[in-house]
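Thread: xanthosine-5'-monophosphate complex, take 2
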Amino acid sequence: MQNNKRPESLARITTAAAAEKFINEQIAEVRAQVGDKKVLLALSGGVDSSVVAALLIKAIGKQLVCVHVNHGLLRQGEPEQVVEVFKGQMDANLVYVDAADRFLDKLKGVADPETKRKIIGAEFIEVFKEEALKLEGVKFLAQGTIYPDIIESEKGVKAHHNVGGLPEQLGFELVEPLKFLYKDEVRVVGDALGLPANMVYRQPFPGPGLGVRCLGAITRDRLECVRKSDAVLREEFAKNGLEGKVWQYFTVVPDFKSVGVRDGKRTFAWPVIIRAVNTKDAMTATVEDVPFELLQHITARITAEVEGVNRVLYDLTPKPVGTIEWE
Ligand code: XMP
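Output below.
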């Protein structure tokens, strides 16, 4: 049986020196565990999988095969950053899979949020499995499991997010170097491994990505509105000192249009809804008091720069009664 209890000897990692010590111990452990075999990792670009990737690249170099599946629902610049950081800077063995069309075709006409989630999850496993089967000599699957995942899965709060039972199906053994760390410790380790700050201190981003922010049945043009408006919001929050202060912020585009006017002509276009919330555990959340002038500036930018949009709204609803995501 795997030991899933954080060792008492592991002091809280808060300094670069403690992170270095942890990294060196893990490098030795991983090398002992995997020998000369290959290790596969689904690299989303999120904090946990990015830190696992950087750690394993240090430990076993090209024996690690990272698979980055672009499901077409990532934020602007994300797939490019994954390729740049891991292939460009760290010289990783990275397989980039552009599966956007596959996902968007499967999602065509599907409006129910939970069905959308299921399709995205199942298709992700399918794509990842196809890539795994193309490779030879893979014996291990690395995962960015962290300690709260283990605690929550033991309490039955959420299923342990193995890549959908893949390890069992493909006979892989798990490599989980971060499994005793809390999120703040993962970030300290990520810093020590030289990952860029905007990767290490990223806001939470749901697995189904922009798919649950392009409300109802996803269309490519409306998905572009979500992506572009989200990019404007993130840029403005970064410029105005809100990045790193606000827990989660994003835009949502519903599947209805309203009447507007531009250059003296009637328009019929989508609204963009801004959401910016603070929370400790995502179970409850309060709305960030974004300065009104900044909201006006963001509104001006989004309506000028994002095609197909003629209104911008700010979501004032705390959780409860609204959830953080709209779907
Ligand atoms: P809600 O909308 O339930 O969101 O208030 C709470 C937190 O969970 C994130 N979230 C998800 N994360 N897959 C994920 O990986 C999902 O399907 C999903 N749905 C919501 C949400 O972004 C927020 O941080």
